[in-house]
Amino acid sequence: MRKVIGGNGQDNTVAAQAWLMAGNKFTFRDLILIGRPEDPRSIWMTTHEGPVIWSPMGLFHPAVVTRGQVQCKIGTDTQTLSITWSPSNNASTVNTATASPYQLARLHTYDNWPVRIWRALMPTPGDANTIGCVEWFGGRVTTAAPERGKIAFNVSSYMDVLTQKVPSTVVETTNTLASTAAVTLPAGDTSVPVFQCFTGSTEDYIVADCLSPSAGKIYSGNIFAGGYMVFLSGTGATLAGAWSAIGQNGAFTDGDGNRHSEFEIYNALPFYVSTTAPINLGDEDYYGFPYVPNPQSGV
């Protein structure tokens, strides 16, 4: 049995079962909401002969409305439901605030509006609070076609979101936004973490101390895994611009018992060396212009 929500907002499923087990019967009516509860333009309808109050939602007005059959399916198939409403207001106006539902349907106002249907279990006709209601259907309006004396709504269940095609450029490893995003801050930090290398680093493991935003902070293990580090420029910064993806991170304790941050990097940091550039004819690999006189002596 589906979950029954009473007028007090509580689960009344057991009470509904007890009512039926005692040989009683319910009067079943639909409560239909087209639109959002907070929208004053929303349509609150019931198939009951008079107004129905279901406290968790509000007041539903009697309307000439019918719906198609709601099917019970297992899986993620999308279900469509037809709702036919015959509103009494058919006067045409030049103001959408006072326009008839027929005009609004013609203007596609109802397109993509949410639709919710509850099945009211009434122990006495008109009483939707004592036992409550069952959630019966949820979806959105795909089309609202005005016809002679009625509006035909075609409603697609919320499961249709699973059939929508998503551009490949926003899916996981192909996500261009993620692959071109700027630096991502750890949770709780207000600025990019900056570290200073500590003695003991190797080409594969970087031992460092955090300078900011929290001096000396040791980040939890592997919080930077999959991220990257970039060496900054500055005085004595011999690796300025070098970078590498981070395999894992954790803590390192030196010989004095002091704790530091440690990063394992994927790219071993490369370096190259150079001798003094040859400036004289006698220097090896000299490629200058020989036999050019000194400016002072050539005057």
Task: Compute the number of strand runs.
Answer: 15
As a whole number of angstroms, the C-alpha radius of gyration is: 36 Å
Secondary-structure element string: EHEEEEEEHEEEHEEEEE
Number of helices: 3
Q: Structural class, from secondary structure content?
A: mainly beta
Protein described:
Strand 2 and strand 3 form a beta hairpin. The chain has 3 helices and 15 strands. It folds into 2 domains: 156 residues, no CATH class; 72 residues, no CATH class. Strands 1, 2, 3, 4, 5, 6, 7, 8, 9 and 10 form a 10-stranded mixed β-sheet that branches. With 299 residues, the protein is mainly β.
List the helices and strands and how they pair.
Layout: E1 4-5, H1 13-21, E2 27-34, E3 43-46, E4 52-54, E5 58-62, E6 65-67, E7 80-85, H2 101-106, E8 114-122, E9 132-147, E10 150-157, H3 176-179, E11 194-197, E12 205-212, E13 228-230, E14 243-253, E15 259-265
Parallel strand pairs: 3-5
Antiparallel strand pairs: 1-9, 2-3, 2-8, 4-5, 6-7, 7-10, 8-9, 9-10, 11-12, 12-15, 13-14, 14-15
Brief overview:
The protein has 299 residues and is mostly beta strands.
Structural descriptors:
299 residues; mainly beta; 2 domains; 6% helix; 32% strand
